[in-house]
Amino acid sequence: MATFIKHRKIKIVTLAAGEAIADHCSAGDIALVQDAAGWWTHFVGENGAIDSYDAPFASYNKALWTAKAAAEFSSE
Questions:
Q1: What is the DSSP string of the chain?
Q2: Which of 26, 32, 33, 75 makes an SS bond possible with 8, Cβ 3.0 to 4.6 Å?
Q3: What is d(CA 68, CA 41) in angstroms, rounded to the nearest whole number?
Q4: Per its UniProt entry, which superkingdom is the organism in (predicted)?
Q5: pTM over cut 0.90
């Protein structure tokens, strides 16, 4: 089940296994998704475009911290 938090007016969505970004996120949201490699931070753009970092984070907390930092930056 997806969970949502707001940070600086940006919605950060943590998706459970098997959940699709398109089903829970819209433009401007940040999605956190776990796979076998770790936690990915995805930035959702217009028309469902997704931009991500080159590598996953080792922990959920690192991915969340990065998402919050990105939200801080985009709110300036």
A1: --EEEEETTEEEEEPPTT--HHHH--TT-EEEEEETTEEEEEEE-GGG-EEE-SS-BSSHHHHHHHHHHHHHHHT-
A2: 75
A3: 11
A4: Bacteria
A5: yes
Give CA–CA dist 72/44, Å, rounded: 16
For the chain, the distance separating the N- and C-terminal CA atoms, rounded to the nearest angstrom, is 31
Q: What is the tens place of the pLDDT at every residue in 25-41?
A: 999 999 999 999 999 99
Q: Provide the domain count of the chain.
A: 1
Which residue range is the domain that position 25 belongs to? 3-74
Q: Which of 12, 9, 45 is nearest to 26 (CA)?
A: 45
pLDDT digits (tens, 9 = 90+) for 18-76: 999 999 999 999 999 999 999 999 999 999 899 999 999 999 999 999 999 999 887 65
Give the C-alpha separation, 56 to 8, whole Å: 23
